[in-house]
Specification:
alpha+beta, YefM-like fold
């Protein structure tokens, strides 16, 4: 995949790598590998940045980690006065 030059690593505002749309489409799987390896990747059209490709970070979940942080009122399921006419 051909880097557009302007956004080579260490250059540009954030050290991002920029690719034009055609190159990004042709080498999408290697572009994804770069992103997962920590590279900042921007896809541009005619040298104008359009989108930034970022990984999805999914945090690990620990059952019971919010224990004691949430309280539910004893009357949480009591009928609301606003709905008296419907009962």
């Amino acid at each position: 995949m051909t880097n557009m030059g302007k956004g080579k690593r260490g250059e540009g505002k954030r050290g991002e790598r920029r690719y034009n749309i055609a190159d990004a489409k042709a080498g999408f799987s290697s572009l994804v590998r770069e992103v997962l390896a920590g590279e900042d990747v921007v896809i541009a059209k005619d040298g104008t940045p359009l989108v930034r490709v970022i990984p999805i970070h999914r945090g690990s979940r620990t059952p019971g980690s919010a224990k004691g942080l949430i309280t539910i009122a004893a009357d949480f399921d009591a009928p609301l006065a606003d709905f008296d006419q419907y009962q």
